[in-house]
Write a structure and sequence with these properties.
By secondary structure, this protein is an alpha/beta fold. The protein has helices at about 15-20, 45-50, 55-60, 105-115, 135-140, and strands spanning about 5, 35, 40, 65-70, 90-95, 120-125. It has a 6-stranded mixed beta sheet, sandwiched between helices. The longest helix has 14 residues, at about 105-115. The termini are close together. About 40% of the residues are buried.
């Protein structure tokens, strides 16, 4: 599997996705610092939300193969800037999480916003139900 870094706002589903793709028990856990599980780096949402910490994400990504921009379509705020993927020295894909609780319009809007940020391709997943995870895993195995 590619070495990946998960980037997203607080409560966007990064840790739950990490738990799902690494075969761990799904349980709530607030990420307080960079954490490495197998080939997955989980980041605190504050690193995206507070621009002073954003450079930490870029520096950490240098040792990875893939960035995943994570977006919860039920959140009312959008933390990625247009073209933000270009700040990273490696490819950036997008993952719309929580598809089990979002409606189709929210999912569509989230995909559009991730594309605007420069993420490509974009996946739709529910880490709790496991839907869409297989397609994401195939991409990460390439």
């Amino acid at each position: 599997m590619k070495k990946i870094i998960l980037v997203g706002s607080v409560a966007s589903g990064k840790t739950t996705l990490l738990q799902r793709i690494n075969g761990r028990k799904i349980e709530y856990k607030k990420t307080q610092a960079l954490e490495v599980i197998n080939k997955t780096i989980d980041t605190p949402g504050e690193y995206l939300e507070h621009r002073a910490f954003f450079s930490s994400l870029i520096i950490t990504s240098v040792d990875c193969d893939q960035v995943l921009f994570i977006l919860d379509p039920t959140q009312e705020r959008f933390m990625y800037s247009p073209g933000q993927a270009s700040a990273f020295p490696i490819p950036v894909a997008g993952v719309v999480t929580k598809t089990d609780i979002a409606d189709e319009e929210q999912i569509s809007d989230a995909k559009e916003l991730l594309a605007l940020a420069g993420a490509d391709p974009i996946f739709e997943v529910s880490s709790y139900e496991g839907t869409g995870v297989e397609e994401l895993m195939k991409f990460l195995e390439e």
